[in-house]
Design brief:
This protein is of the alpha+beta class. It has eleven helices and 16 strands. It has a single domain, classed as Penicillin V Acylase, Chain A (4-Layer Sandwich). It has a six-stranded antiparallel sheet with strand order 12-1-2-14-15-16. A six-stranded antiparallel sheet has the order 7-8-9-10-11-13, covered by helices on one side. A two-stranded antiparallel ribbon has the order 3-6.
Amino acid sequence: MCTSIACGKKASEGGVVLIARNEDYPENNWNKYMKFRKYPPYTRGQDKWQLGNGLTVPTPENCFSYCSMPDAQGAEEAVCDIGDHFLFEARGINEKDVAVTATNSMQANEKALAADPFLPSSGIEESVIATLLLPQAVNARHAVRLLGQYVTEYGATEANGVLMADENEAWYFEIGSCRHWIAVRIPDDKYLVVSNSMRIHDVDLTDTEHVLSSDGLFDFVIEHGLLEKPKQNKFDFATAFGQQEKSESGQTDKYYNTDRIWLAQNILSPSQKPEIRQDTYELFLAPDEPITPVHVMEVLRSTFKGTPLEHEPDATRPIGVVRTLQSHIMTVDGRLPAGLKGVIWQALGSPLSSVYVPFYALADEIPDSYALGDSTSFTEKSIWWIWRGLFALADQMDGQNKSDGLLTYCKTWENYFIESQKAMNQVLEQFSQPDASDAKLMAKTYSTNNLRLMADAAMQKYELMMAELSGRQKDR
């Protein structure tokens, strides 16, 4: 139910590689929390590693720390005894400055699934992909190869799109059936937008520098007639494996995904005047100007308001929606010292009513209010729930403005963080690469302070809005 964006380092401001995603869910309330894992969920030297969904794989050789954002109900969802919550970790960056966001849920077509049906359980799926990759990937291409090996060897339970990045490149990976997959390197000067349908088309399978795929993929497509006239140098994975667009109700919705692709491309490349509701959109597109986190925030919050689709009755699925669980923008900056290259801009709940707060991925001191939550039970101790509560209050108070006042508040804070982040990066760039211990301490302190500052401000805003709304009550 998600929307993702990625761009290469020549398409961004400052030469950073960027990947971002709105993690959407059919339900409005589904608590996420933040976690820094100093150690992965396995012990090096053990033979087997059993994940929360029942999948068992050999224990990896690498053992990297990483940050993540699991479901609060992860332990209850698990079919195995995983102790701490390790399901649906959603996004993260590891100590090698490798970023992963997983996933965009998708549908495979009946013909592809008849030929290679998904496993019923205990396979590669959204709930474990970030957990599999982040503790062991040394770069983005390695993450692609790891995931490909896992899908090929163990099989997948569902179709998904995954983004990986390091300081040099970003990759997009699609799972089309139980054991077939494809991944493409995003051109340095272009960006990619993904909704909930397969996107990879018109790629050259022989170009192994920019395209990786499962063994025998082309022959499999020919054998099972998944394309009428398949071409290796113009391969259409999306048509071969993808399904018609479906909404969360399960009903076919012709524009459920394409409207979001158009919306993002119209914001980032307006000069190219992308047509509304094309059958197929360009996989990669050049932005009109270098992409910044602010541009991506605009895209992830975008609705049909002010566009030609605003009054279309069948335009029902914009990018910015209330039921987003969390939204993140991750940048990997080659100018910064090793271990400090990854920055996460994190919004809790829907970005329509939450502030994107920047912190360096190595920050291992997460304030308690970010580490709490109990699925659908409101608690003022959880900052995730405070943001949800702020949205609910603003919706009651603003009426037809649909929480515009709260969004203005959020953007004011983001303007502050944008300037402070630029200043901190400039300081950190001065530290030498071989020994960045002082830089890491500064980055950790800055990150924790940002989180605490925003938690306190959000709580104060919640109390003020609650008092104001209470003051508006009238005798009946």
